[in-house]
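BUG: 3D viewer hangs when loading the predicted structure for this chain

Environment: internal workstation, default settings.
Expected: structure renders.
Actual: progress bar stalls at 90%.

Input used:
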Amino acid sequence: MNTHGFVSRSVLVTAAALACIPVTSALADGATVSYSPRARDYASSIDYVNAKPFPLPQADSPSEPMDDRGLMGEGEGNPGYEPGAPGTGQINPVRVIPVGLLDDTLDLEPEAFGTSQHPFTTSRVDLGSQNEVSKLYPYRAAGKLFFKIGSDSYVCSASLIKNGLVVTAAHCVSEFGKGKYYTGFEFHPAYFNGVSPYQKWTAKRVRVMASYLNGTDPCSQAPVVCTNDIAVISLNPISGKYPGPSTGYLGFGWDGFGFNGSGIANGNKALLSQLGYPVSHDQGKLMQRTDSQGFTDSTKVNNTVWGSRQTGGSSGGPEVVNLGKAAVLSGTELGSEADWNVVVGVSSWGSNDSKVKQMGASPFLSTNIKVLVDQECASSNPACK
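Structure tokens produced before the viewer hung:
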């Protein structure tokens, strides 16, 4: 891993291969595979202070941004989405580490673009020294994901898409092609500098696409740039309750929702807002937001590509279309697919050259995210209410 928190995923898989739960303890449900953590998975507690940012996997070559790609081919189907909900905002904070001092001498100014010439803005969600913004909806539906690989603690990013259902990257919960899961998952919504204002929530079940776990997933660069680097986590309730009624949850869309054009087609574009906790910014203690125009790249198995400065620790964080709160309109109207706070991808990879400043995500499709959610929410799973 270099100083920017990037690493080749194949190197990480080799290092962790003996420290994970084998797929033989998982259950296959058609196209997906789920794993239910055992009590002993939580016997060794998370080291919050020394948790490492899970390295952001590296792609070998950048995409060409913002060019005149033609619309080539049709997608998986008509765009669709499920809406989110704002929640009440009632907090029950838990301090997991002492509040650390932030080094304001770090270079935290937004950068217009990298060598890819792909414009973006990356900055803190919270403008002051308190979590005035990140504790508000829709931001509070995103958070940090802690987990264990062997005896080491790691962090990714994640977000709620149901009252007790979290979406993140598959590489944050399992090893590509190795049939193994990590352990000790904890989701901390709206995490802020050592405090989890909406408590911490453990995993009841983790679900990924079977093709990702067994290594048959379509990839342009295995195991980094793939079709199904997506996972959902069903949380355990606390006193019969889930975080969503307080935090709210984001919607999620598939098959090109929020993108111009038709379905998943090469060059289709969307304005994306990325949320995450990259170690490169405020030491990963504060939520960061990146805004950039993303596009679908057929040379990268239809992954979405956007400009970003986020690095390790941001893996699994949501890419959201129409982030914010609706205004009361007068004299104008909403555009197409204007539904608010809809996740259309999760951070999966960055360039192996930190100067490029581009990131990518597996496309949300009716054949992956919809299948994952539908199978996890079958049999009236209360986490999905």
